[in-house]
Each structure stands twice: as structure tokens, then as C-alpha cells.
């Protein structure tokens, strides 16, 4: 049984965005303030990464824990309403993420994926990893 009314649930779900999310904005603004220039949600790159350094072939994804299935085997049991729909949707998202990673790696892209909470709690670590990837790619290191 849902704890929200149908109208409340509708408004909550309507507010969920698939691009330019809060976690994506936070990471992008931190990179921009350090002088990095990038594209956001570039449709020309397979998987439409949240942040793209196209010339360097670096794709950065900012994934929410819920929609991308972090700790899925443990967390899937917490979904109590419309479970069949949500299990199918989240498992499809996880499969799509895996396919996107494989396709980009096959084409010599560096793929970086960050969970939303990692961005919120450890933004400096995320930025450092991206900076290292950028420097490595600038100096010809592919991985």
C-alpha cells in the first residue's frame, strides 16, 4: 500500500528529471569552476552521458541509487508498491548501463560512473578522478 495519495505520487514522479539533475549540476559546476569545459547530455555520444569531454573521449555518468539499482539484490525488496513495474524498469536501466559501458569502452572511451551520494558526500574525490582521467588522456594514456 502506498503511503501517498495517487495525486501526491503523481506530482512526485512528475518532478523526477532525467537530465540536468541536482547531482549532475553539482558535479558540472565544480568542474566548470576549475576551468574544465565539456558538453552536457551530448546526444551524439552513445548513451548520452551526463558530462562529455568529447575530444578526450571521456564520458561521465551521474547515476541515482534508486533508478540505477545500487545494491539491487538487497534494495529491491524495499519496493512495496507496483513492484513488478519498478523491478522491470530498474533492471532494464542496469542492463542498459552495462551495454552503454561496453559500447563506449569498445570505442576507446573512458567511462566514469558516480552514484549520487558519492557526488554529494565526496565531490572532491569525484573531481580528482575526473581530473586524473583528463590529464591521462591529454598525455596519451588510454586507461
Notes on the structure:
- The chain is an alpha+beta fold and 143 residues long.
- The protein is built from seven helices and four strands; from the N terminus they run ααβββαααβαα.
- A four-stranded mixed β-sheet has the order 1-2-3-4, with helices on both faces.
Q: What portion of the residues fall into strands of 2 or more residues?
A: 5-15%
Runs in which pLDDT lies below 50 for 5 or more consecutive residues are none
**Percent of residues in helical segments?**
40-55%
Mean pLDDT: 88
Shape: globular
Number of helical elements: 7
In brief, what are we looking at here?
The protein has 143 residues and is α+β, with helices and mostly antiparallel strands.
Topology:
Blueprint: H1 6-14, H2 22-33, E1 39-40, E2 51-53, E3 58-63, H3 65-68, H4 72-75, H5 83-106, E4 110-115, H6 116-121, H7 123-138
Parallel strand pairs: 3-4
Antiparallel strand pairs: 1-2, 2-3
Core attributes:
four-stranded mixed beta sheet, alpha+beta, 143 residues
